[in-house]
Specification:
Layout: E1 8-15, H1 19-38, E2 44-50, H2 65-75, E3 79-84, E4 88-90, E5 93-100, E6 105-109, H3 118-132, E7 153-156, E8 163-167, H4 170-185, H5 190-193, H6 195-210, H7 212-220, H8 223-244, H9 256-293, H10 296-303, H11 309-330, H12 336-343, H13 346-356
Parallel strand pairs: 1-2, 1-3, 3-6
Antiparallel strand pairs: 4-5, 5-6, 5-8, 7-8
Length: 364
């Protein structure tokens, strides 16, 4: 579509399912407003959001340029912007964005932004469209704080593809990438899928609430010991979920060691946050249950001193820790594929299946 033929420039905004799709829906109207305010030459910008996931290649990467011509012809778009939650690598470095003026396409890799703010996403889209429309953009240089704290640098593809990459470098860039990967995985989705673990944890925890020896132990243990038991119980559940459900990754190809570290750190934190959330829910349920069932006078009689709210809290605390250990055993009955789907984002789950040669890999 040529600008000389119409005063309307249409942009197709594609996004992966999950956080990327949600973010695309939230920024579309704002982006349209900003573009129309920025270009006061009579041009009308229209943003069309479409839930189309572009297929991955055998390396688990999305090559947007291969699909742009078909998409532009099918939908009548002048430019195509793709929002993805799968980390992309170029020249051994994770990239934040890819822009190709010849194809009229741009890709924004959400995990590389850490916690993606709507304003930052809109600003990137505006800059990308300005460049795609022929406005140009100067190279982005690392900050003066040095290589360790530098976040991004502009490089150009040596294969003459016309792609420009904003790569993230240094320790801070890697930390942002891991944080972004954890957010894309949405740890809160994993808790409801651990139905067997929850059942096992609830049963074990309830046993602790009604067992008088646990009352005495909870009353006797120090604060530090209770904290230690909590940490151990969450670590045990996290470790069991990781290995029983085959969540540990062994990447192949370039930058294998870095990917091994970053991908698995993100997975460990995703599962650990889900385990901690399950622990918190269990603690609240057991605390309420103990307050309802155990009479204060009877608890005081068993403990040999007056029972206060502190004793109920300690009891629920210890029972939740024991219940979490029981939940690790109960999680063995949860379906492995179901847990894997809940642990990773839709596209990350697909990438893993492609890399591991699984028959469950999906074609978008």
């Amino acid at each position: 579509m040529d600008k000389t033929e119409t005063d309307t420039r249409t942009v197709g905004l594609l996004a992966d399912p999950g956080i990327a799709q949600s973010l695309a829906n939230r920024v579309a109207s704002r982006l349209e407003t900003v573009l129309n305010e920025k270009y006061e030459d009579g041009t009308r910008w229209v943003i069309e959001v479409d839930p189309v996931s572009l297929p991955m290649n055998e390396s688990g990467q999305v090559i947007v340029n291969k699909h742009v011509a078909r998409l532009r012809e099918k939908y009548g778009w002048e430019f195509v912007i793709y929002l993805t939650d799968v980390p992309q690598y170029e020249r051994g470095q994770p990239v934040r964005s890819i822009i190709n003026e010849a194809h009229g396409a741009a890709t924004l890799v959400l995990p590389s932004m850490g916690v993606p703010r709507r304003r930052a996403v809109v600003r990137f889209f505006v800059q990308a469209l300005h460049e795609l429309a022929g406005g140009g953009k100067p190279p982005t240089r690392p900050t003066s704080l040095g290589r360790v704290l530098s976040v991004q640098v502009r490089i150009e593809d040596s294969a003459d593809s016309g792609d420009h990459y904003d790569s993230i470098e240094g320790l801070r860039g890697r930390v942002l990438l891991v944080v972004g990967m954890i957010l894309s995985n949405r740890p809160w989705r994993l808790v409801p899928r651990l139905s067997s673990a929850l059942a096992g944890a609830a049963a074990t925890g309830a046993f602790g609430v009604f067992y008088t020896s646990i009352w005495s132990m909870a009353d006797y243990l120090s604060f530090r010991r209770l904290v230690l038991i909590t940490v151990v119980s969450i670590l045990v559940l996290t470790t069991w979920l990781l290995f029983h459900n085959r969540l540990w990754e062994r990447p192949k190809g370039a930058r294998r060691r870095e990917k091994l570290l970053l991908y698995n750190i993100a997975t460990v934190f995703t599962v650990a946050l889900a385990a901690a959330a399950m622990y918190a829910l269990l603690f609240i349920a057991l605390l309420v249950g103990s307050l309802v069932v155990i009479d204060q006078a009877f608890l005081s009689f068993e403990l040999g001193h007056e029972a206060t709210m502190s004793e109920y809290l300690n009891l629920a605390w210890l029972a939740a820790s024991l219940g979490t250990l029981g939940g690790a055993i109960g999680s063995s009955f949860d379906e492995v594929k179901s847990v894997q789907r809940a642990t990773f984002s839709h596209r990350e789950f697909e990438r893993r299946n492609i890399e591991f040669g699984s028959s469950d890999a999906e074609e978008p």
